[in-house]
Design brief:
The chain has 142 residues and is an alpha+beta fold. Helix content is 42%, strand content 29%. The chain has one domain (26-133): Nuclear Transport Factor 2, Chain: A, CATH 3.10.450. α3 packs antiparallel against α4 (44-51). The longest helix is centred in the middle third of the chain and has 17 residues, at 61-77. It is globular, with a radius of gyration of 20 Å.
Length: 142
């Protein structure tokens, strides 16, 4: 009887074990997605206006440098086509870092968004773009 119970349990559990270790890609936060939608529909300036609404990063030299960098990348890589989430790192309940890859006609662009707030009220505290994944992704990812 024990063998039958063991066989029955293994027949039920073994097919679902691979699914247990798999994780779904992180959901892209609304503020990030809104900027990406604005980028696709209305261009780079609209994207940065959306991403940096209410942000202390808005209007800084670093923000302008990132906008200029993304404009340069777009000139080389072609049009923005879509996005793929990579990884999210929760630093605290109110702070998280979100990593993603932007798909362009001629290659990927890696992005990092530092988000502050909670739930539906996140703001972008900073953002960064690069064509080199090592410049964006933490050493343990990728």
């Amino acid at each position: 009887m024990r063998r039958f119970a063991l066989l029955l349990c293994s027949a039920v559990l073994v097919p679902i074990l691979p699914a247990i270790g798999q994780t779904a890609p992180p959901r892209i936060p609304g503020i990030v997605m809104a900027g990406l939608t604005a980028y696709q529909n209305n261009g780079l300036e609209a994207a940065f206006a959306s991403w940096l609404k209410g942000s202390p990063f808005r209007g800084t030299k670093d923000a302008m440098a990132q906008a200029s960098l993304l404009e340069t990348i777009q000139a080389r890589y072609g049009n923005y086509r879509g996005v793929e989430p990579i990884f999210v790192r929760d630093i605290s309940p109110s702070t998280r870092v979100f990593y993603l890859v932007l798909d362009f006609d001629n290659g990927p662009v890696f992005a990092k968004f530092l988000l502050y707030g909670a739930d539906q009220h996140w703001i972008v505290a900073s953002l960064q773009f690069d064509t080199n994944p090592d410049a964006i992704l933490p050493p343990t990812v990728g």
